[in-house]
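Q: Sequence in, structure out?
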Amino acid sequence: MFAAQRACLQQIVPKWGGSWDEASQFVAECAAGAEPGSLGHLLVVDLAIERWADGEKTVPPAMVDRVRQAATQSVWHPHHTRGPATATAHANLALFFSLAGLPADAWHHFNALGQAPVEGMWSYYNGAEAMYRTQRDAAARAAAKTTGGRTGARA
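A: Exactly. Output:
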């Protein structure tokens, strides 16, 4: 279902003739109907990255709060069952927090990925793999500063 929701969202963003209002409403409706632990909460991440790709280079604090809440309700929720889309979800969350200038928050998602290959919306970057490694390294450094040198599993 999440894959279908992501595909639908792509069709209603402005680059394909939709609007940000329509896309935001769709994301809110999907999140409202999402089960605890499901990835449906994370459409807000795709929306935020699409807005960034469209030229909004500043991430509002309210969006950061929404994405943190979405992560808590999905990939960090006790009822979340890891599946094939979980890695993509963590990759997109890592990208979002990197774009938002919050590398320590991004680290939790990079760490959850382990050595998984670059996935998700990182392809919006030219040189996605190099950018991924650069942001992952920055996130590890930021996390080490905030945890006294530990960059292990999410607390």
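The mean pLDDT is 91.
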